[in-house]
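Structure ticket #2291
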Amino acid sequence: MTVTRPRRRGPDYAQAFLESPVGLAIGRDRIIIDCNRAFATMFRGTRRVLTGSSFAALYPDELHFVDTGKRVGRTLRASGSFANDRVMRRLDGELFWVHVRGRSLTPAAPHRDTLWVFTELSGALHSRNTPPMALTPRERDIAALFVDGRTAKEAAARLGISPRTVDIYRTRLLRKYGVRSTPDLVQRLLLG
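Resolution: structure written out below.
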């Protein structure tokens, strides 16, 4: 009598991609070819809406999409990978902080085929390996409101803190980034 053993089934990579707890996106020439549920949830969209869309919809504005594309392209061409913390825009318009890490499968044409991992930082604590320029959760909240064009008074009202507290954080941010004004700070933040 011959005993037939069940065949071992390999991992279901498609299911692993879809159910990953971090946002994953596959890009081709800066278009979202596919993304997982965590990515869609993070950007407050659906996979159906995001697939086939330009990554431009996820940047604060077109200028930052273009400028970041040039900078990221140079880095991907040189090393094949890229990582930084930056402000992104959800589909409903809200700005928030993410850690972005990506890899080009075609470094000679850096944006042709890319893989991206997005981890939301808003309200999250950094690890002890965070670089010194990293922002605290409160600094990120205030910086995101400045990037969104809010005044210190509006930021204070939105966060339920005093305008003086916002000014203290603003001063810290100006020192961290070595700039003298809120517009200069916003520019530095958006360039990631």
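Closing remark: The chain has a mean pLDDT of 86.
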